[in-house]
Design brief:
The structure is a single chain. With 221 residues, the chain is of the alpha/beta class. It has nine helices and six strands. The chain has helices spanning 6-9, 11-14, 17-32, 44-48, 85-98, 109-114, 138-150, 162-166, 199-209, and strands at residues 35-36, 56-60, 116-120, 125-126, 157-161, 178-182. Strand 5 (157-161), helix 8 and strand 6 (178-182) form a beta-alpha-beta unit.
Length: 221
């Protein structure tokens, strides 16, 4: 399915009858409607950030629902697409936190390759219908991914922005890990505590303290 160590970690899911039936539902959606991201990008987060390399997890809700935007990474859009408001606010906080220049691209692939798992709780969406695939079945997989990461021996930072992401806290019980929460970076809530929360410096301080390489958050390099 993925082509790296996630396949073994998620083998119990891939081989379950429930997931096989769910895949049939998703394939039917792709056949009959316009679904994002493109099929080959659905598991992009797992492909770009193997289990062994995962040092940080940023949980999103579901993919962007506009044409050409989503490519399987939470908060990220494909190269050449206008940067969404939430990501603009993430860049503003990054600039305030670490002094990193605001990027001109919304493609966060570089973060994924640095060890940041950009995981949406729901991995597909119907065109122009946000949250249309919520409760369809993806949550069983993505909740399981969080549980598997919770078992990791190496410390992991879980960045949970907004109430939806904070629901995942119940799966993160290993005291080795760090949970960072704040309001969502959307324009509706960013000024209620997201701005000034300094998640990026907190993450790197924690990684360094635990003998792990810090994340290079600079997209523009």
């Amino acid at each position: 399915m993925i082509g790296n160590d996630w396949d073994e970690k998620l083998k119990i899911v891939w081989e379950s009858e429930g997931f096989k039936k769910f895949v049939q539902i998703i394939n039917k959606e792709y056949k009959e409607k316009t679904i994002f991201p493109p099929k080959n990008y659905v598991f992009n987060a797992l492909k770009l950030t193997p289990y062994a390399n995962t040092k940080v997890v940023i949980v999103g809700q579901d993919p962007y629902h506009g044409v050409g935007e989503a490519h399987g990474l939470s908060f990220s859009v494909q190269e050449g697409i206008k940067i969404p408001p939430s990501l603009q606010n993430i860049y503003k906080e990054l600039n305030d936190d670490l002094g990193i220049p605001i990027a001109q691209t919304g493609d966060l692939t570089k973060w994924a390759k640095e060890g940041v798992l950009l995981l949406n709780a729901v991995l597909t969406v119907e065109k122009d219908k946000p949250a249309s695939h919520r409760n369809l079945g993806w949550e069983r997989l993505t909740d399981y991914i969080i549980k598997v990461l919770n078992q990791k021996e190496e410390p992991v930072v879980f960045i949970l922005w907004g109430n939806f992401a904070k629901e995942k806290t119940k799966y993160i019980t290993n005291p080795k890990h760090l949970i960072i929460t704040s309001p969502h970076p959307s324009p509706f809530s960013a000024r209620s505590g997201f701005f000034g929360s300094k998640p990026f410096s907190k993450t790197n301080t924690f990684l360094k303290k635990n003998g792990l390489k810090e994340i290079d958050w600079n997209i523009s390099k």
